[in-house]
Amino acid sequence: MDSWKVSLFTLISTFSLALDLAENKKLEHAQRVAYLALRTGEKLGLAPDRLRLVFYGGLLHDIGKVNAQLPVESHPLAGARWSTQLPLLTEIAPIIAAHHEAWDGSGFPLGLSGEEIPIEAQLLFLADQIENQFGQDYDLLPVQERIVAFVEKEKGKRLAPVVADAYLELLQEPRVYYDLAHRNLAQAIRRRSQVFDQEIQQASLKHLALLFADLVDAKSPYTAAHSRRVANTAFYLGQTLGLPAAQCRQLYLAGLLHDLGKLAVPSAILDKPDQLTPQEYSRIIAHAYYTERLLMEIPGLEELAFWAAAHHEKLDGSGYPSRLRADQLPLPARILAVADYYQALADDRPYRAALPREKIYHLLRQEAVAGRFDARVVEALLNLF
Predict the structure, then answer these.
(1) Which one of 188, 205, 344, 385 has the minimum C-beta count within 10 Å?
(2) Distance between CA atoms of 106 and 318, rounded to whole angstroms?
(3) Phi-psi category of 196—alpha, beta or left, where left has phi over 0 and alpha has psi -120 to 50?
């Protein structure tokens, strides 16, 4: 793992897909906002360093919406606060804070107007408006006339005149519509990202993973710091069971990211104090699938993605999402499953209080005797705590 070099664009782009899941929006919403804002900024002749902020700001513009308990008007400032923790990207915070401000002062949360609004935020505002109103079918070409009418109507009102004119100029390029089509977007945005991309090293990857873990856990008051605790437990179990140091660090990252797919689960289900319906339960167990689906998008993290996605698998094949059995589950995946189970029992849940240590130990041993958990991992955890 120490030799890994992960693409910043790929990592941020993947997380933008997770944010789309959190909002119940179609996948690639944030990517399309980033593309439209970037291309419009190019028409304005913005310098490369400012276009970089527009691009990454577009990918992460709704990062503040993860906490569904916040009023919608608060999410730009919440997103700005999260953004200040992003290694290599702290400069996008003011842009995210202002991406719902309108030229005429009718936006939120600060009521800025005119030149008070950073041009980068004005670009995100326009792109987000277009995408939200006209992008439901992944194809803007059939609604081109409606888009032009919308931009011309809002020019000088909610939209800055110079930004509106640049966007109308951009719409003269047929390739814009082709690039935004679902089957073409990934390649189009990857091509545009090359000038802004960079490789990130272990320290930055860990920092980003910690941020993503905290964002996921902020989705529910019952999971605060859950991912950090799972990661720490898994790391120490790996050390105790003799895994190489590099693999222990990899296991730590898998622990931080194991619940990334929970962004796809509505908060109302996560926080429900009553028994879940079959449909709600199916949404819950899908989170492990989405964890794998998202992390597999990042070259170099394939092994980590498998471990993270397998944290609800059982050795007897009774787990989910893939019903894997013992011969398909390596030691790191077994460790993560035990660490997550332990921390879940030790935390409060909407339907029960945290269990006492003796009860947790009993349940862990019960799972090991039944052949669902690796007995060696369970005993290592009991000795650890």
Answers:
(1) 385
(2) 54
(3) alpha
Q: Does domain 6-193 have CATH number 1.10.10.60?
A: no
- Environment class of 383 (CB within 10 Å of its CB; exposed 0-12, middle 13-18, buried 19+): exposed
Rounded Cα–Cα distance for residues 107 and 76 (Å): 11
Task: Please name every residue paired with 325 in a beta bridge, in sequence order, or none if there are none.
Answer: 316
In the chain, which segments carry CATH 1.10.3210.10? Answer: 6-193, 202-384
Q: What angle do CA 307, 335, 328 make, to 5 degrees?
A: 50
Query: Does pTM surpass 0.85?
Result: yes
What does pLDDT average to in each consecutive run of 10 residues of the chain (385 residues)?
76 90 76 96 97 97 83 90 89 97 97 98 96 69 84 97 97 87 86 92 90 91 90 98 97 98 86 90 93 93 96 98 97 99 90 90 97 98 90
Separation between Cα atoms, residue 148 and residue 176, nearest integer Å? 14
The CA-to-CA distance between both ends of the chain, in Å, stands at: 28
Q: Residue type at 135?
A: G
Q: What is the DSSP string of 181-243?
A: SHHHHHHHHHHHHTTT--EE-HHHHHHHHHHHHHHHHTT-GGGTTHHHHHHHHHHHHHHHTT-
CA–CA gap between residue 200 and residue 237 (Å, rounded)? 27
In angstroms, how far is CA 129 from the centroid of its own chain?
A: 21
